[in-house]
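User: Sequence in, structure out. Go.
Assistant: Echoing your sequence, followed by the structure tokens.
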Amino acid sequence: MKLKEIKDNAKKYIELCKLLYTDSRTPKITKILLWITIGYALSPIDLIPDFIPIIGHLDDMVILPVLLYIAIKSVPKEVYIENYVKILKK
């Protein structure tokens, strides 16, 4: 996978998360998980400090996608598909 593809996919998932967050049919737990993900990403406090080589950054690369995966899986399928289609049309 090329770096440009990764960047484009990341933009799509960020846009999808925005749409899911603003959708009134999205469960509260999903919105809470999205806030936790944003908070963890922006927080200077990590579970494993970044100054520890490799492992320090690896926890961010594992925890953030897992939180997003759980948040997106908690959305009803029809809400997810409807918002995903909006992203593809852009």
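User: And one key feature?
Assistant: The helical segments are 3-22, 28-42, 55-73, 77-89.
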